[in-house]
Amino acid sequence: MPAAASRPSTPPGAGWAGGASVAVIGGGISGLAAAFLLRNAGLTVTVLEGSPRLGGKLAVSEVAGVPVDAGAEALLARRPEGTGLIAELGLSAALEVPGTTSAGIWTRGRVWPLPRRQFMGVPADFDELAATGIVSAPGIARARQDRSLPADEPGGDESVTSRVGGRLGTEVVDRLVEPLLGGVYAGRCDDLSFDATLPALASAARGHASLAEAAASLLPPATDRGSAVAGKPAPPPVFTTLTDGLGTLPAALAAGSGAVIRTGAMVRELTRTAVGWRLTVGSAHAPEWLDADAVIIAVPATPASRLLTGAANGAAAAGRAARALAEIKYASMAIVTLAYPVTAFGQPVTGSGFLVPAVDGRAVKAVTVSTVKWPHLQRDNPGVHLVRCSVGRLGEDVVLQRDDAELAALAAADLADATGVRGDPVDVRVTRWGGGLPQYSVGHLDRVAAIRAAIAAVPGLAVCGAAYDGVGIPACIATAKLAADHVLAYLSGRAESK
Asked: Which of 74, 164, 355, 404 is the most buried (most CB within 10 A)?
């Protein structure tokens, strides 16, 4: 391996005191977080990223002169993993809070307000749902049957459509639940696992006969809707972001980790050796080799499966993990960011955006008016609204085969139909995320348990990423911590046995 690319790795088997080596395969948020979490352990850590840049699905670039995220644009503030890591990086002062998170559903001819008393689209108040206009009168009547239906018998995992639709009817799924889950997974409710995609609701449902009552148990009391009424301070924001975009987080993590960082370094093969691991890096005609005491695989399920298939020599458990990983499907999508003069909307924009049910057949599945949701984006360009349009769901590859200009025109046309915005955008950015979102299909939790059990049987190996416990940034960081802890425990145990 060229000296300019990486400092020499510690020979395998050098032990903890000698500074053991860890290779992290993948330079997205999960891999970089794992490297950062290993920073104080006295290890030589090398991050190997196959693409030309770090960050995975986090990226930022300018639109109309404003730095705007092209991938994930918000993280859950109520989970400590994301904000905690940002604090460790000394970036807490750069955290921004939303101006509003008031969103709607564009369906049945107009944008309707999203009901406040709902949990990921599952309504807790049928009267409020009826008042929004999202669901038809027959659909409301069917949803109300949830209160009188017998309790569901305990059973195995099932799809969101089966579980939620069985109690509330398919219209609630199509018009409410699917748009919300589709915004997260770009998936289909008849395929997505109820237990994996709605774990809090699945847990609450075990103690309630009614699914609406289970949803209500996860929400603040209705009297707490306004802090003035309840006499309490307003709750903290659900989401947060960074001033210059979450796409700036990977570079900060890389710098803070102290790890050797290599981009354009595709790991093609992973081989178990007598004392550790050997990684084959680069092209077939000019391969390089890196030896490491432990490896963290932080790439999507498909390439992880390929690596583990090759690693099965002498490690049958790696093969079992590879087969389970191969069962995880991925959906492709694109983010079309459009910049318009504020005056093009005719009147002030007050909501943060809207979601679009798949049954309505639109190209766009979600719209965020970024400059309303994140007011700091208008500081440098107050005359422009930045609008983020998500395009593409599982099985909708045909729409994504259009070129950038066509895709932007489709998004702009849908936006005009929904909001009445006039004229052409003054700037456009199209970002494609091929195979970007893992699908938590029915049986996902069992699949992940099988992967982890198999990986635990392979010395010096760990996995992390969006394929396991959640696709959001905090969830990815949580898997990185599990992987880092697993590797540290392995290396510590090995040193003690010598």
From this structure: 164
Q: Token pair for residue 288?
A: 């390089």
Report the CATH superfamily, name and number, of domain 21-56+249-328+441-496: FAD/NAD(P)-binding domain (3.50.50.60)
3-state class (DSSP) for residue 442: coil
CA distance 179 to 167: 18
Q: Could you tell me which residues are beta bridge partners of residue 270? A: 279
Q: Which amino acid is at 356?
A: V
* Count of other CB atoms within 10 angstroms of residue 188: 21
Among the listed residues 115, 123, 145, 147, the one whose alpha carbon sits nearest the alpha carbon of residue 218? 123
Rounded to the nearest integer, the mean pLDDT of the chain is: 92
DSSP string, 328-356: --EEEEEEEEEEEEGGGGSS---S-EEE-
For residues 429 and 290, give the distance between their C-alpha atoms in angstroms, rounded to a whole number: 38
| CATH number of the structural domain 109-230 | 1.10.3110.10
Average pLDDT of 445-468? 97
8 A C-beta contact, residue 425 and residue 345: no
**Structure tokens given for 85:** 């890591």
Q: How does pLDDT run across 224-254, given as a tens digit for each residue?
A: 554 444 556 667 789 999 999 999 999 999 9
Pick the CATH number of 330-438 from 2.60.40.10, 3.10.120.10, 3.40.50.2300, 3.90.660.20: 3.90.660.20
Tell me which residue of 17, 15, 44, 48 sits closest to 31, measured CA to CA: 48
Q: What angle do CA 294, 300, 306 make, to 5 degrees?
A: 70
CA distances from 43 to 15, 37, 133, 309, 488 (A): 10, 11, 58, 27, 10
How many whole angstroms separate alpha carbon 170 and alpha carbon 189? 10
Residue of 241, 437, 472, 433 lying closest to 335 (CA atoms): 433
Q: Report pLDDT digits (tens) over 40-60.
A: 999 999 999 999 999 999 999
- Which of 472, 387, 368 minimizes the C-alpha distance to 100? 368
Angle at 491 between CA 488 and CA 496, to 5 degrees: 120
Whether the predicted model's global pTM rises above the 0.85 cut: yes
Cβ–Cβ < 8 Å for 462, 296: yes
CA Rg, the chain, in Å? 24
- As a whole number of angstroms, the distance between CA 210 and CA 124 comes to 10
Q: How much of the chain is in helix, strand and coil states, percent to nearest 5?
A: 40, 20, 40
pLDDT tens digit sequence for 413-430? 999 999 999 999 999 999
